[in-house]
Amino acid sequence: MTLLWDADPTASDRYSFALGADIVRFDNLATATRALQEYVNDPLLIIGPEVDMQSACDLSDFARVERPEMGVVLMRRRLDVTVLAQALRSGIREVIPADDLTALADAARRSRELSSKVAGHVGDAAVTEGRVVTVFSAKGGVGKTTFSTNLGAYLASKGSKVLLMDLDLAFGDVAISLQLLPQNSMSDLIAMSGHLDAQGLASIVTRHESGLDVAAAPSEPSDADRIPGALVGEALRVARRAYDYVVVDTPPAFTEHVLAAFDVSDLLILIATLDIPAVKNLRLSLDTLDLLGSPKESRVVVLNRSDAKVGLRAEDVVAAIRQDIAITVPSSAAVPASINRGVPIVLDEPRHAVSVALRELADRFIRVQPAAGSPGSKADEPKRSERWSLTRGSKR
Ligand SMILES: Nc1ncnc2c1ncn2[C@@H]1O[C@H](COP(=O)(O)OP(=O)(O)O)[C@@H](O)[C@H]1O
Ligand SMILES: [Mg+2]
């Protein structure tokens, strides 16, 4: 199948001689962009002569990051040095004269050959794509930030390359919980929207002493509105190529940012507590996730402060949410104390019952088990015993 961006409805027929009859046509940048993410087995995109140069380059820039094996062939009515230079900069493979069907057929053949070679390598690289783990609850104060900071710090302390992204963009407190003073934040990604790469992402993170990288929430709550959901998706897709694990902390709501994170998450950690509103919200969240088509097998429910004597028992929660609880984490004053010290409890008091439970959560559900002869972690120099096979679970 060939992807074709051309507003002219007769274009598919005209080009079928050169490209074959199996053509999917789009008539704008948005649908073409979506198509690149949908038709993942089709590595050839033809851009028609009427598409303006800037949009063509934008799409090619996007393809270069999202679909490195994809070939973009551009048709132009006039070929000059400026056009060629611009095309080159955006990674367009060939620029050919409009209506030269022989040139189109040749360019398409060359591009497909190259794509199949590149795909071999990209296939290898895909194995090392990191896992995205989102910690969510529709209620505030249940332990999302506690869990995400501890899980991130624990995974990093094991030698993995880990990014913790604070998607509680208005009131995020990941940075303060880890006593970091970020120079940059998620709002600095705005300028890189559409062409974000690993270097750009690296320029906004703050390193914690555990080795954990943090993409902090903006210091101005109002900046949250300036960050589009699509940018969060873009950042997470770039991040999972650069990191072994990407842990995402969230606000207590289904914001567009949270939905973008769900979309690319391999695992959702949903937090329950022993109070009726939290259980009700969890039930509603699970229903919403079902509606969104999120697979059940990629969710775990964790009960935080499981020993609180409040008249509601863990069994009641299981009955209400109709889903098992994977891990229970006890309540302890050591948790707020560790946050006040700015040191994750898993690192500071590894024998504490809360730390033991958090490690169990990470080891059972997040950390991919070591495999013999597996490709290494993306951490600079991982120790032999700390290398993991990063084969991802089933991706939607
Ligand atoms: N297991 C626990 N025992 C005691 N206090 C906890 C526990 N988990 C979280 N807390 C405390 O509850 C408060 C809210 O936790 P936080 O992680 O900020 O929640 P959220 O991010 O969901 O709003 C914090 O003061 C934290 O220290
Ligand atoms: Mg929080």
What would your notes on this structure say?
The chain has two domains: 2-125, 3-Layer(aba) Sandwich (Rossmann fold); 128-386, Rossmann fold (3-Layer(aba) Sandwich), CATH 3.40.50.300. 42% of the residues lie in helices and 15% in strands. The chain has helices at residues 11-19, 29-38, 53-66, 81-89, 101-127, 144-157, 174-177, 198-202, 229-242, 256-264, 276-291, 314-321, 334-341, 345-348, 353-366; strands at 2-5, 23-26, 44-47, 71-76, 94-97, 131-136, 162-166, 206-207, 213-215, 245-249, 267-272, 299-304, 327-329. Helix 9 runs parallel beside helix 10. The two termini are 21 Å apart. Mean pLDDT is 89; it is low at 371-375 and 380-396. Bound molecules: adenosine-5'-diphosphate and magnesium ion (MG).
Index terms:
single chain; 396 residues; alpha/beta; Rossmann fold; 2 domains; 8-stranded mixed β-sheet; 5-stranded parallel β-sheet; 15% strand; elongated; disordered C terminus; binds adenosine-5'-diphosphate; binds magnesium ion
Q: Could you give the topology of this structure?
A:
Blueprint: E1 2-5, H1 11-19, E2 23-26, H2 29-38, E3 44-47, H3 53-66, E4 71-76, H4 81-89, E5 94-97, H5 101-127, E6 131-136, H6 144-157, E7 162-166, H7 174-177, H8 198-202, E8 206-207, E9 213-215, H9 229-242, E10 245-249, H10 256-264, E11 267-272, H11 276-291, E12 299-304, H12 314-321, E13 327-329, H13 334-341, H14 345-348, H15 353-366
Parallel strand pairs: 1-2, 1-3, 3-4, 4-5, 6-10, 6-11, 7-9, 7-10, 11-12, 12-13
Antiparallel strand pairs: 8-9
Helix pairs in contact: 1-5, 2-3, 6-15, 9-10
The structure holds adenosine-5'-diphosphate (ADP) and magnesium ion.
